[in-house]
Amino acid sequence: MKERYHISGMTCSACSSHVEKAANKLKGVKKASVNLLTETMEIEYDEEILGREDIESAVEKAGYGASFAAGGAGNRAGFAGGKEAGGAQQSCFTEGGSCGSAVSGVGRGRNGRESLSRKAKEEAGAMRWRLGISIGFLIPLMYVAMYHMYNEWFGLPIPGFMHLYFHGNENAMTFAMTQFILLLPILYMNRKFFAVGFKTLGHLSPNMDSLIALGASAAIGYGIFAMYRIGYGLGHGEMAVVEQYSHDLYFESAGMILTLITVGKFLESRSKGKTSEAITKLMDLSPRTAVVVDALGNEREIPTEELCSGDVFLLKPGSLVPVDGTVLEGTSSIDEAAITGESIPVEKQTGDKVVSATVNKAGFLKCRADRVGEDTTLAQIIRLVEEAGASKAPIAQLADKVAGVFVPVVMGIALVTLAVWLIAGAGAEFAISSAIAVLVISCPCALGLATPVAIMVGTGVGAGHGILIKSGEALQQAREIDTVVMDKTGTITSGRLKVTGVGCYVQDLSLETLLGLAAALEKKSEHPLAEAIVEHARSQKVSIPQVQDFKAVFGRGVEGVLAEDIPPRPTMSLPSEERDRILAMLKKEENPSKKRTEEHGEFWVGADGPTSVFLAGRREDGSVSVDFLNRTDSGAKAGTRFFVGNLAYMEENGIQPDRIVLEGLNQIAQDGRTPLLVAEEGRLLGCIDVADEIKASSFAAVQKFRELGIRMVMLTGDNKRTAEAVRQQLGINEVVAEVLPQDKERKISALKAAGRKVAMIGDGINDAPALAAADVGMAIGAGTDVAMESADIVLMKSDLRDAVTALRLSRAVIRNIKQNLFWAFFYNVIGIPLAAGLWYPAFGLRLNPMFGAAAMSLSSIFVVGNALRLRGFRDGFTKLVKKTTEAKETEAKETEVKETEAKETEAKETEAKETEAKETEAKETEAKETEVKETEVKETEAKETEAKESEAKETEKKEKAESEERKMTKVMTIEGMMCGHCTGRVQKALEAVEGVSSAAMNLEAKTATLELTGEVSDETLTAAVTEAGYQVTGIVVG
After folding, report:
1. Dihedral pair phi/psi, residue 171, rounded to 5°
2. Is pLDDT at 959 greater than 90 in this prediction?
3. Hey, which of 92, 594, 600, 1003 would disulfide with 308, CB 3.0 to 4.6 Å?
């Protein structure tokens, strides 16, 4: 049996060490662990040999108090046990039964926490009162004792009454008695130090209170001795004795020691209170009351702890869910961020589960309580955080060993210090002062707090991130991890199959009709692939027709006859930009199936479009087909037999895909997806590929693991090809596929045998053996209860990134613990020799007991303060924003509206430009025609004149002109050409002109060199270039 006890009277690590030893000595105790910070003891023992009374008696004999903590470790059921316990309880309101011990246990648990909270507040109030009184009397005590020093150091004037009543040997007794009287209230308010200190000393288990009590008692005792010596000197006229001992009073030192230690305890308690803020916040998530409905329909508000399994409770909009239960009536959305970390509310309806501490957003729900009290999800989370905070890490063992002997050793050092200085002739005042300084500067409290405060803050920070760390040992082990073994399904992937691509191989069928036919057949199948297709069809609002003569062939596929006609759908067409993009992609021979879904395929209904484009857009001979871009849909006729299944099933039914289809199917399989072919008798229609998608968070998690230098191994029962595809996409170091549960455990053992520190991350029952075998087991919160029971760390948000955060957090916590331990040891190693006066002979360094007390009071505060820095820990990940369906639809509509407006604006601008260009072109053409006519008239006149002069010469000139024209070269200067496409377009336009044999383009010089076979006018050439969309700025004969 494992139980928890509250331990009272502990003040330092020596106390926790003594209690732990006393408990572990009992016969039948397997293990006892005491936590100074939480003042609790976790003890595992054989109840047949030992009882609670024996445990409490042993602790009391050690000088401390012990009381059983109801609702503690022994009063709980596990994740799995909680369900059984919840199911066995009877309803108080619906069946008139009684919750019995279950309810009383819940009440004890809640009342116990509230009782501890009240006790803590009362102690904090008492501590403030004690501190106020101590400081109130310490100030006048210090002034009376040191007024002359204040005058010397700071120049403060000394009032006349001080000279009259306290100054000089004649007032020495008044001076001493006044200090003693001012000290008495301080002694009374801090009497606990003496009561506990001497009590534990009497039990031969001294602690920090013992050191304080001895140091203060030594100072007070010496002061009282000095008062007697002053009285003797005044009575016998020995003024030298009076003067000597009036300066050797140590009442102010005793008062300062007690007050400073109280200041330290006060600040320490406040700091320690901050370490448990995570638990406080978790507890605040639970509502105080719940509204229950009896068999007659009457509503009644009761405390949450009085709810029993089977009770019917109501959830109004905005209310917190009090316990875990099942929805009986109503629909609503529940915000489960407090438990799962998911910000998107989850829709709930009849039959769905609700979890405690979640928030009902808008609707009204009537629910049945299933798991109540200590069995609720929230109660188990709180319990795990409490137990982890109260646990010890192995790194604390050295501090525990030192703490066990620390106080006796310090007391021995103080006695040696006193004896050595007395023998050396330093004087009683010097020797006693040094011994007191040794006692009051030594701080076992810092050693005791070094580990638990860091663990409590660290586990609380983890809980805030949705990471439940079950023990300090798991926290320390996680720091050493160098290899992470991950289950694939549900851990790396979403654990749910989804349709990732839909493609057609025929031109007379739309994707919607193809998807509807497949869903109609798969609707009658129970295979997970079938469920994914049907769900996808419904999400795309595709109507699912009825089929008859259904037949399922195991391991192959399904077939059936369509019972009703599917009418043709309107012709589908793509936007011109999409057409150009797809054609360019096909011409470049890219395989779009390698592209991410987000980049392509928005037009294709629910599909990863590029895959289907690749398959449908390329012919057997490798050429590009564009027919599919203008797809039609002829529907489907009733009585036609359709098939959905794998390639082997198609071949068995006489359907043989061509080479291009086979290549595409092979690529789909290599990408880790499962292709399902859809066919009718004698014809292959298309393909639907399904996959268990990798979570978006898994990519970020794997990248962080790589940065931390952690080797990653993926274990899965899936086939090797699928597993390898996932490994390549994520960049995981190693994958082991087709493994059984026992194989996972063997792989873990093999890695450990090779010297690896292994963490296993899983979520299913089949992962439980491996989780238990690993150095650190991490269970996904959405997994099974068995997995979570077997694990050391539970990731409540089902996010692989939290595994990275857990490892980083463990490193931060252990680093913080090491810092605390180092400074705790360093402080004592430096402080004790200084207080003993070890450096006085060589350097003249000596520690006043008051400064020693101040150092002691601050040491534990610094330890706690350093641990509180962990509250600033951040996971280092960028938050992944998920959009709700409504938000996505709204965004899609807004985008569509913007695109439509942009297209309309662009169309108007294009139309205006075209109109303007046509008008300009018409004017230019008219001007050119006029110019051409005038030129022709002039040329005709010139030719007639030349003809009159000489017929022979004319013939000769014509022959020569014809010869020159056949060989004529013209160089055109053209503006507007920007690229090779432009030059090609101009070249094509010029070479189309009759009489132009060739056109050589120069993009840099922006020229076109023309070879002419006949006379071609400049106007004709200019018109051809202008019509192509460019401007001619000059034409010269080459």
Report:
1. -105, 15
2. no
3. 92
Other C-beta atoms closer than 10 Å to the C-beta of 984 total 12
| pLDDT at 80 > cutoff 50 | no
The DSSP secondary-structure symbol of 625 reads P
Could you give the C-alpha distances from 290 to 321, 342, 368, 947, in angstroms and in order? 8, 25, 12, 120
Residues with Cβ within 8 Å of 135's Cβ and at least 6 positions away in sequence, in order, are: 259, 263
Phi first, then psi: give them for residue 27, nearest 5 degrees: -70, 130
For 1000, the 3-state DSSP assignment is strand
Q: Could you give phi then psi for residue 888, rounded to 5 degrees?
A: -65, -45
Is the Cα dihedral 580, 583, 588, 590 positive or negative? positive
Q: Is the dihedral of CA 909, 910, 915, 918 positive or negative?
A: positive
Name the pTM for this structure.
Answer: 0.60
DSSP 373-391: GGGSHHHHHHHHHHHHHH-
| Residue 183: closest CA among 224, 228, 155 | 224
Using an 8 Å Cβ cutoff, are 230 and 215 in contact?
no
| Residue 622 confidence (pLDDT) above 50 | no
What gap in Å lies between CA 647 and CA 102, rounded to an integer? 58
Q: What count of other Cβ atoms lies within 10 Å of the Cβ of residue 704?
A: 20
733, 726 Cβ separation under 8 angstroms: no
DSSP assigned state of 91: -
pLDDT for res 279? 58
Residues 6+ apart with CB under 8 A from 866: 816, 819, 820, 823
Active site amino acids: 487
* Cβ-based neighbours of 221, under 8 Å, separated by 6 or more: none
The C-alpha atoms of residue 908 and residue 818 are separated, in whole angstroms, by 72
Please report how the helices 801-836 and 428-441 are oriented relative to each other, as an axis angle in degrees rounded to 10: 170
Give the tokens for residue 762. Answer: 């899983």
What type of residue is 190?
Answer: N
Q: Locate 651 and state its tokens.
A: 């071949």
Q: Which residue has the higher pLDDT, 871 or 939?
A: 871
Kindly state the helix (H) or strand (E) to which residue 627 belongs, with its residue range: none
Tokens of 965: 């024209």
| Amino acid at the residue 322 | P
CA distance 162 to 156: 13
Average pLDDT, whole number, for the chain?
78
Q: What is the DSSP string of 834-885?
A: HHHTTTHHHH-----HHHHHHHHHHHHHHHHHHHHGGGG-----PPPPP--H
Long-range contacts of 648-653 (CB under 8 A, 24+ apart): 648/556, 649/553, 649/556, 649/557, 649/677, 650/677, 650/679, 650/684, 652/556, 653/559, 653/679, 653/681
Question: Which one, of 710, 757, 752, lies nearest residue 734 by Cα?
Answer: 710
Q: Which two tokens stand for residue 807?
A: 């490892």
| Residue 497 bridge partners (DSSP) | 692
